[in-house]
Amino acid sequence: MNQPRKIRWLIAHQPQELFVRTARAFSEELKKHCNNELEIEILTYPEYCARYQEIPGLDVLDQKDVSLDTGVQALWNALFDGNIEMSQTQVGLIGDLYSDFHALDLPFLFEDHDHVSRTLEGPIGQELCANLGKKSGVTGLGFTYSGGYRVIGSNDPIASIKDLQGLRIVVHNPLTLGTTIESMGGEAKVVCPGLWNKYDLIGKGEADAVETTYLRFNGKHVLKTNHSMFMTSIVVGNKFWGTLTDTQKEAFQKAALYASRKEREWSVQDGEKFERDAVANGVTITEISEEDRVALKKKSQLTYVKCKHYFSKDLVKNIRLH
C-alpha cells in the first residue's frame, strides 16, 4: 500500500494554538475526501527545521515580540519555491501580494458574521482566492478569523469615541482605523501587522491605546467598537497546487470550507467566553453606543474615499451590498 503524500502546513502566525486547531480541522476533513492519498503534516518552524532544513528569515515567525517583515517575505518565498505547501496568514499581509485583500480590513465593511460568511463563501470570496493565484505565487483556499472583531484596548477607561481624541493609538494599518483616528485629531501609530505584542507599546509609554482583538488583549479596559474583522486566509503555493489532480483540488477546497467555518465559529465562541470571564479577569468592556457607532462609521468614510482607486472596480460596493 502506497504511503500518503506529506503536505507541510507551516504554522506561521501567533497565537499558534489558534492556527494549529484550524490546521487540525482541515487535516481531519481532508482525510474524508482524498482516499488516503494526502496527509497534512502540521509544523511549527522549529519542528520544520528539525525535520527538513532552516530557511533564512523564517525564524522570526516563532517569536512574539518582533516585526515580521522579513519573516513574511521568507514565508512567501518558501511557498513560491515549494519548500512548504501550505500556511495561513493575515489578509493584510496577503494584500501586499494582491491589493484587493486589503479591502477586507476596511472599517465597518461587514455588518455581522453572517455577512462575512455570505460574502467570502460566495462568488466574491472565490474570485478573490482565484485572482490571488493568478497575480502571485500562492492561491487562497478559504477565509478564517484571527480573533474576529477588532476593538480598542487601553489601561485607561475609554467610554466613548470622544475619549479617543488626542490619544496615540496603535493600529493594524491605516485602512483599519488609522485614517479615522487621524480625522478625529488623534495619532494613529501604524506598526507592522505581524507585530504580535503591540500592547507592550502602551507599557513602554509609546502609546495610549491599541487596536486589537479580545484574544490579543492583556490590559484593563476595552471599548467594544467592532469596527472591522481581523481575518486570515488559508493559502497554498502555486507550485504545489499545480501538482494536484482536479479531484485532489476539490478535496482541498472542501476541507478548507469546513475548516474555515469551524474556525470562525470557534473565534465567536472565544469572544463570548472572553466577555463572560471579563469581570473575573479584571477587564472592563464598554460597548460603543449606537450614536457613537454611527459617528465613528461616518468618520471612517474618509478611508473609503482615500482608497477608492486601490481596489478592483465595485469590489467594496459589492461586499457592502452582499
Structure write-up:
This protein has 322 residues and is α/β, with parallel strands linked by helices. The chain has twelve helices and eleven strands. The protein has a six-stranded mixed sheet, covered by helices on one side. It has a three-stranded antiparallel sheet with strand order 3-10-4. A two-stranded parallel ribbon has the order 1-2. The radius of gyration is 20 Å and the shape is globular.
Secondary-structure topology with pairs:
Elements: E1 5-10, H1 16-31, E2 38-43, H2 45-51, H3 69-81, E3 86-90, H4 91-94, H5 113-120, H6 123-135, E4 138-149, E5 151-154, E6 168-171, H7 174-183, E7 187-190, H8 200-203, E8 209-212, E9 221-224, E10 229-237, H9 238-241, H10 246-277, E11 284-287, H11 290-306, H12 315-321
Parallel strand pairs: 1-2, 6-7, 6-8, 9-11
Antiparallel strand pairs: 3-10, 4-10, 5-8, 5-9
What are its keywords?
D-Maltodextrin-Binding Protein, domain 2; alpha/beta; 3-stranded antiparallel β-sheet; 2 domains; 6-stranded mixed β-sheet
Shape: globular
CATH class of the largest domain: Alpha Beta
Secondary structure tally: strands: 11
The description of the largest β-sheet is: 6 strands, mixed
Alpha-carbon Rg, integer: 20 Å
Following the backbone from N to C, one meets helices and strands in this order, namely: EHEHHEHHHEEEHEHEEEHHEHH
Number of domains: 2
The percent of residues in helical segments reads 40-55%
Please state roughly what percent of the residues sit in beta strands, choosing from under 5%, 5-15%, 15-25%, 25-35%, 35-45% or over 45%. Answer: 15-25%
* C-alpha termini separation: 48 Å
CATH topology type of the largest domain? D-Maltodextrin-Binding Protein, domain 2
In the predicted model, the low-confidence regions spanning at least 5 consecutive residues are: 192-196
What is the count of helical runs? 12
CATH superfamily of the largest domain: Bacterial extracellular solute-binding protein, family 7
Structural class: alpha/beta
